[in-house]
Amino acid sequence: MFGPPQVDPPNAGIFEVMGSENIVQMLEDFYMELGESSIKDMFPEDLKTASRKSAAFFIGLCGGPPLYHQLYGHPRLRARHMPFPIDETAKDVWLECFEKTLSNASEKYNFPEEHLPGFINFLRGFSPWMINR
Ligand code: HEM
């Protein structure tokens, strides 16, 4: 691959429906799933605090304010993930944790049902970019 995968970003109307609080909760739950998974050792012990950084990123990605960029600068996601040994299996586990978090997402987080397939499609299309081993 010679650049990030060309995959449609999540629908920018997601933030308007969910708001910050629901996105923060969704990412917190996702990190709790990661903490129970076979790739848990990659993550810091304080998963809740770690999840806030990712939440800032996903808020911007879903059409909210560019919090991550404001707080931490350009995400440079592939470079930031380089220290972690991410192979195909780790990517699959990461995705499974996210997809598990997204079950009943419309009830849990007020995730707009019609934008869920596009969101999952983004995760599936973009995550292989983080594979570095
Ligand atoms: C493919 C499997 C992936 C694995 C195994 C993985 C793993 C990790 C790990 C270990 C961290 C550092 C946690 C910490 O020290 O706080 C991290 C941070 C992060 N990840 Fe991933 N990640 C993956 C995919 C993705 C994808 C697809 C995205 C975005 C769509 C993403 C977004 C982020 C963000 C925004 C951060 C915070 C970066 C920072 O520290 O500033 N990750 N990830």
N-C termini distance: 14 Å
Strand content: under 5%
Radius of gyration: 14 Å
CATH class descriptor name = Mainly Alpha
- Report the principal-axis shape: globular
Low-confidence stretches: none
User: How many domains comprise the coordinates?
Assistant: 1
Largest sheet: none
Give the helix tally.
7
CATH topology category name: Globin-like
- Tell me which ligands are bound: protoporphyrin IX containing FE
The helix-strand sequence is HHHHHHH
CATH architecture heading: Orthogonal Bundle
Structural class: mainly alpha
- Give the rounded overall mean pLDDT: 97
Q: Assign a percent range to the helix content.
A: 55-70%
Total number of strands:
0
CATH superfamily: Globins
Structure description:
About 60% of the residues lie in helices and about 0% in strands. It has about 130 residues and is mainly α. It has a single domain (about 15-130), classed as Globin-like, CATH 1.10.490. The longest helix has 21 residues, at about 15-35. It is globular, with a radius of gyration of 14 Å. The chain starts with 13 loop residues before the first helix and ends in a 7-residue tail after the last helix. About 25% of the residues are buried. Bound molecules: protoporphyrin IX containing FE. Protoporphyrin IX containing FE (HEM) binds near residues 50, 53, 81, 86 and 130.
